[in-house]
Specification:
171 residues, mainly beta, 4-stranded mixed β-sheet
């Protein structure tokens, strides 16, 4: 989108756009600077945090001028159909500002994952319709109860939006 904004800014007026929605990647500060050059300060920005296995996990919406003042752009509060918790290495729930792996429980989760080296999907014994997925993402709850993405706990990387486990690459 950055290339599009820069190349097409002379042809299009983006000031009439009231709401931008992003997903798939964290919103980085450099890209945020590009956005602020072309859109109104009161333009709403929504950042959707998701995975292929779980679909939408959480969302964060705020005005562009408010997001610019944040040190870290959060990925939001859990979607109504998802139970999101963070667990530490021992499997215990974390406290505010303590990093942990994002664990999502819902009846709206994929049944399995193809070619996942560390498949982390389980059926919940107390509810056969509920599945739990250990995402491999690291996050923390901030003091406002909003999720902040911190990266990955494994060797997966994203290249052009495609998730790749570097352990699967043959030399």
């Amino acid at each position: 989108m950055e290339k599009f904004l820069i190349s097409e800014s002379a042809r299009y007026n983006f000031t009439g756009i009231e709401h931008l929605i992003f997903g798939g990647e964290p919103l980085n500060p450099d890209f945020l600077n590009v956005i602020t050059a072309y859109f109104r300060p009161d333009c709403l920005v929504t950042l959707n945090y998701s995975s292929s296995e779980t679909m939408l996990i959480s969302a964060y919406t705020s005005s562009l001028n408010k997001i610019q003042r944040l040190d870290k752009i959060p990925v939001g509060t859990p979607a109504p159909s998802k139970k999101v918790r963070l667990v530490n290495e021992q499997g215990n729930s974390t406290i505010v500002n303590e990093p942990g792996e994002v664990v999502v429980s819902s009846k709206y989760i994929a049944l399995s994952v193809i070619c996942d080296v560390n498949e982390q999907m389980i059926n919940e014994p107390e509810d056969p319709n509920l599945r739990t997925y250990f995402t491999g993402d690291l996050a923390k709850w901030n003091k406002d109860g909003v999720l902040e993405h911190l990266g990955r706990k494994d060797s997966q990387v994203k290249i052009n939006g495609v998730r790749i486990d570097t352990r699967l690459i043959e030399m």
